[in-house]
Each structure stands twice: as C-alpha cells, then as structure tokens.
Amino acid sequence: MVGPGLQAGTGVGACDRLFTMLTTVRVLAEQGPIKVELARWRDRLVVVKRLQGTHPVLGERLRREAEVVGKLQHDNIVPLLGAEDGALVYAYCPGVSLAEALDRGALPLPRSLKIARDLLEALAYAHDHGVIHLDVKPGNILIKGERALLTDFGFAKDLALTAITAQEMALGTPNYMAPEQFKGVRTDPRSDVYAAAAVMYHMLTGAPPFGRQVLRFLAGDDRVPLEPLPDSARELESVVRRGLQRDPDDRFDSAAAMLEALTPVVERA
User: Fold this and answer.
1) CB 3.0-4.6 Å disulfide test: which of 34, 42, 190, 266 passes with 248?
2) Domains along the chain?
3) Where in the sequence numbering do the catalytic residues fall?
C-alpha cells in the first residue's frame, strides 16, 4: 500500500523488491514492536520504520502514516520514499533532533526563530492538505544544517480519511499537548498551533511550559503559572502566550496566522 504521493514500482514508491534491497547499518530506536533503523538502500542512507511481528492496530497505524505522509512534499517535512505492509522508508536527514539540541539548554533567539518559522511553514502546508500532526515536540523536529524538518506523522489525523482512533483517546506528549487534545479531541488544527507555541517556549526558556504541573493545567487548573520569557525574547511574549491559550478560539486561527505574527520578529533578529 502506498500513499497518494508515492508511485508503486518506481524509484520512490513501494514494490515487491523494496525491502530486499535494504541493508541495515544500525538500530536507531526500538519501542515495543516498532523498530527504527538506519539502512542503506540504492546507494543512499535511509531510515526504516518497521513493525516486528503481528499487531493489527500498529500495522493499521503504519499504513495510515504512509497514506498521510505520502501526499506531503515540503522542504520542512521529512519525505517518505517508499512503503510496504509493516514498514516505511524515510529519507535520512543527518543532524540532530531539537530534543538533543535542547539538552544543553535554551537556544539563541535567532536560532529559535528560524526553527519556529520552519516548523510553522511545515504545519501550515500540512493543514492546507487536511493533515493535523498532533505530536509536535522537539523529538519530532530534526535540525539539518540551517533547516528544521518535521517528522513522525504516526499520530497524525487526516481529515479526509476515516478515523482509526477512538475520539476519547488522548495521544501525544503532555508537555506539548493542547488541552482539547488531552480530552480526546483530534480534529482541530489549532492543537498544532498550541504545540508549536510550546516548542517555542521550550527553545526560548530551556524548559517546556507549565513544567511539572502541566497535567494540572491540562486537566483545567488555570492557577498553574506560566513563567515569563527571558528579557532577550520579551518581544515574543504575546505570540507565545496567545499560542498557549487553553481555548482554541483564543489562539491564532491557524499556523499560517501564527507564522505571519512571527515573521516581523524573525526579520528584525
């Protein structure tokens, strides 16, 4: 099975011989039955995400991920190169994840702004194509040279496809999860706006918003404080706080609108 953006039986699509031509270099990650490997394929390095054994729910999620990412082609989204049942082949993007970069603390303002702009451009494009990511976090943002790329659409919602996840299930990472998503709502692109603002806050302060009290905030406690941004990023305070509003109606209407608000600051940095 391949997504709309892939061509079966060609150099960038799925075919019967696709995975017989892969040579594993090393295992990058392993979570339960999902293994992620660096491999060599057709004289290039690629990243393979594969399901080990039989797991109907995860198998269906990988098939859905192929459908979703297969139709997204953007400079700030890691491209899917091929797909077969139970395995996906992504382009290898050498560099570090934003999570690794943040291990050393807050990032300089110009670097944070560039990453935020790339992220919002990727999200605006995905939303224009009916796709909500729903797991935007530093670990799913790759830094390749001067460019940031969004990856891992495993939790994504394609508004054009039938749901495979029960509405009441909360999937995502609490530190970057919008309050409505925490309650099981997975159909609002403004959930990604919240996550983008949470990532911005982490880049600028060195820690995610609401800290160890994030679950209290997500559960509805408005007494949980949001510490201010450092003085060096004070001109971004209104943008970040608006993105982090509990009510989606109080946030930016879209990733594109948040990007528009951010652009003048990027240009001055």
Assistant:
1) 190
2) 19-91 (3.30.200.20), 96-268 (1.10.510.10)
3) 135
